[in-house]
Amino acid sequence: MSGKPKLHYVNGRGRMESIRWLLAAAGVEFEEQFIETKEDLEKLLSDGLLLFQQVPMVEIDGMKMVQTRAILSYIAAKYNLYGKDLKERALIDMYVEGTTDLMGIIMYLPFQPPEAKEKNLALITDKATTRYFPVYEKVLKDQGQDYLVGNHFTWADVHLLEAILMVEEYKSDILSKFPLLQAFKGRISNIPTIKKFLQPGSQRKPPPDEKYIAQVKQIFNI
Ligand code: IBG
């Protein structure tokens, strides 16, 4: 065993991508075991490795962790990206849940019928510009600091950058009315671990394509 965390998931973003982002931001190397067929998933199930019969599953520190949120919290705490006290942690949790909700709408978009896509795209743009991004813009303004919480780099910053880039893939000028978020994006993208993750050849996954969508539908019966 290499000692590196081992990620079990399909070879695409889905629910694992935020885990990849957080590990990369923390500068932690990880291995990936891709589920490519229904049989691969059934093998994990029959070996009793999936507590709730679901992935993501991450082997880390002798545990076989499931539940995305639990995995992320563990990594954030372990690598000192989860604030310095309970109140900072509470803020990080709130900001992360906001970006999770926004990314959740985007994550399901490729699996929806074509006729629903236009409406959902409009929903994403609307929610990003009227509900979520104004909050983070205000936090940055009120704090007057480089990061969302406590003037240091945390999970909340990593998660927000992931969400911004995801929305930009659908609407490239989404930040046009958010100058502080534009600067934030530039700053966080330049943190060396993140910069590396954003470069081609990293373990960051591309947006879903038709082949991946068909594979995921087949494996998970979505
Ligand atoms: N609460 C769990 C978590 O957050 O980890 C949910 C996990 C989950 O729904 N996992 C799916 C699964 O294992 C795969 S992600 N399903 C099998 C089952 O029997 O429930 C599927 C997904 C993708 C992309 I990939 C977008 C949305 C969902």
How would you characterize this protein structure?
The chain has 222 residues and is α+β, with helices and mostly antiparallel strands. It is 57% helix and 7% strand. It is built from nine helices and four strands, in the order E-H-E-H-E-E-H-H-H-H-H-H-H. Helix 1 runs parallel beside helix 3 (68-78) and helix 5 packs across helix 7 (179-189). Residues 10, 14-15, 53-56, 67-68, 107-108, 216, 220 line the site of gamma-glutamyl[S-(2-iodobenzyl)cysteinyl]glycine. Belongs to the GST superfamily. Alpha family. Pfam families: GST_C, GST_N.
Order of helices and strands: EHEHEEHHHHHHH
Average pLDDT figure: 96
**Biggest pleated-sheet summary:** 4 strands, mixed
Number of helices: 9
Strand order of the largest sheet: 2-1-3-4
Bound molecules: gamma-glutamyl[S-(2-iodobenzyl)cysteinyl]glycine
Structural class: alpha+beta
Q: How many domains make up the 3D coordinates?
A: 2
Radius of gyration: 18 Å
What is the C-level CATH assignment of the largest domain? Mainly Alpha
What is the fold-level CATH name, i.e. the topology of the largest domain?
Glutathione S-transferase Yfyf (Class Pi), Chain A, domain 2
Shape: globular
